[in-house]
Amino acid sequence: MTRPTAIAIEPQPDFTLLITFNNNERRIFDVKPYFDFAPYNELSNPAIFSTVKPEGLSIAWIHGQDICPDDLYFNSILLDMADAVS
């Protein structure tokens, strides 16, 4: 199995990301736990948070912050599961 890769990202107002992976899964990833750590703390600014984009195997923001592709996938919630929890 190949590693799932983020191909589209939609930043949400609650500082989560709606991520579409190359395996056609749509997942929700919560970025808020990262805010306590430099250099991620500036991502709590909505203008900076919204600059996220797919980059290589992962995602990145305008000032170079990124998140490990495995973290993005394995620490996110499958959208159908997120709907069931809400």
Characterization of the model:
The chain is built from three helices and seven strands; from the N terminus they run βββαβββαβα. The chain has one domain (6-85). It is globular and about 35 Å long. 20% of the residues lie in helices and 31% in strands. A hairpin with a 4-residue loop joins β1 (6-11) and β2. The termini are far apart. The chain is of the alpha+beta class. The strands form two sheets. It has a four-stranded antiparallel β-sheet with strand order 1-2-3-7.
Encode the helix/strand succession as letters.
EEEHEEEHEH
Biggest sheet strand line-up: 1-2-3-7
The average pLDDT is: 92
Largest sheet: 4 strands, antiparallel
Measured between the Cα atoms of the first and last residue, the distance is: 30 Å
Radius of gyration: 12 Å
Beta-sheet strand percentage?
25-35%
Write the layout of secondary structure elements.
Blueprint: E1 6-11, E2 16-21, E3 26-30, H1 46-49, E4 53-55, E5 58-60, E6 66-67, H2 69-74, E7 77-78, H3 79-85
Antiparallel strand pairs: 1-2, 2-3, 3-7, 4-5, 5-6
Summarize the structure.
The protein is an alpha+beta fold and 86 residues long. The protein is built from 3 helices and 7 strands; from the N terminus they run βββαβββαβα. The chain has one domain (6-85).
Provide the descriptors you would attach to this structure in a database record.
single chain; 86 residues; alpha+beta; four-stranded antiparallel β-sheet; three-stranded antiparallel β-sheet; 7 strands; globular
